[in-house]
Design goal:
It is built from 10 helices and 13 strands. It is α/β, with parallel strands linked by helices and 307 residues long. The chain has one domain: UDP-N-acetylmuramoyl-L-alanine:D-glutamate ligase (3-Layer(aba) Sandwich), CATH 3.40.1190.20.
Length: 307
């Protein structure tokens, strides 16, 4: 398989606050640090895939403001080709990220701004690009109708489809059947299947539910426990990679999805691509930030060889 990766999603400017704990409602606490940087699941995945060696096109909407300038500069640095429109009647997305200092765990509020208005017409305008891709990736930060239209166009053209169902949301009928690969985490897979996932065996149970509902392969990310790849022919648990002390887990799922897509395009088997994605995520959590934490292809390959 050769060709381009087309990703539909949202860019947001990440405003990241680190503190010993989260404030209670009505409480003000002192933080330890603040950072402003590029984010958004789709944009992060595009950066991760491009850094991992993919030829990536990113479909979205931006405002006309400093955050839009940040988006364009981020994509230019990573080698992502933007397929975006800019609009002066709304704002480029932004996100509040709280990071617990001791663990690196995070809580996030996303305001997608003008990207929240991405329409089916926007997707149809990029139909040729999507239909000629090797892999199409999307998530749920932009409207559901746009995500489903992108998956439909890709599937009809024989393009491999990856849906990262995040943040968790109710899906329309028939959407799971459009997914060659569904990449939820434990929380998201429980929301979709009703199966609580606290072990590998429970992840397999949830994956069976997904396959019964039309998903080609379930790729369930399990944080520090790695990833379960499960299709009709095999069920493989891929352990997480230890690339050093964890600094921040924000963006790890996006790193995995971008690395996974880049590996599929290079012709790796799905299980090999999962391992490549795990190495990508393992490196990303050793660095602060989201898009800025995405590793280069040579770093990923070196970690794979070492472990």
């Amino acid at each position: 398989m050769t060709g381009e990766i087309v990703i539909l999603g949202v860019f947001v400017a990440d405003t990241s606050y680190r503190a010993d704990r989260a404030p209670r409602m009505g409480e003000t606490i002192m933080g330890n640090s603040f950072a402003l940087g590029p984010g958004g699941k789709g944009s992060n995945q595009a950066v991760a895939a491009a850094m991992a060696g993919g030829d990536v096109h990113f479909i979205s909407r931006l405002g006309r403001d400093p955050f839009a300038d940040m988006a364009l500069a981020t994509w230019a640095k990573a080698g992502v080709t933007p397929q975006v429109s800019q609009h002066g009647d709304s704002y480029t997305g932004a996100a509040y990220i709280f990071v617990e200092e001791s663990s690196g765990d995070n809580a996030i509020i996303v305001c997608p701004g003008v990207a929240g208005n991405i329409s089916v017409a926007d997707i149809d305008a990029q139909a040729e690009l999507i239909q000629n891709a090797a892999v199409f990736v999307t998530q749920f930060e932009q409207p559901m109708a746009a995500a489903k239209r992108g998956l439909t166009l890709a599937r009809e053209a024989g393009v491999k489809t990856i849906l990262n169902p995040a943040p968790a949301a109710e899906m329309p009928d028939g959407m799971l059947e459009l997914c060659d690969f569904l990449t939820p985490n434990e929380t998201e897979v429980e929301a979709i299947t009703g199966v609580s996932v606290t072990s590998i065996d429970q992840a397999r149970q949830a994956a069976d539910v997904l396959l019964a509902r039309g998903v080609g392969a379930a790729v369930i990310t399990l944080g520090e426990n790695g990833v379960l790849y499960h299709d009709a022919n095999q069920s493989v648990h891929v352990p997480a990679f230890n690339a050093g002390p964890v600094v921040e887990t924000t963006g790890a799922g996006d790193a995995f999805n971008g690395g996974f897509a880049a590996a599929l395009v290079r012709g790796m088997t799905p299980v090999e691509a999962v391992r490549f994605g795990c190495a990508t995520a393992g490196l990303s959590v050793t660095r602060p930030g989201t898009a800025p934490s995405m590793p280069a292809r040579d770093e990923i390959e070196a970690l794979l060889e070492a472990q």
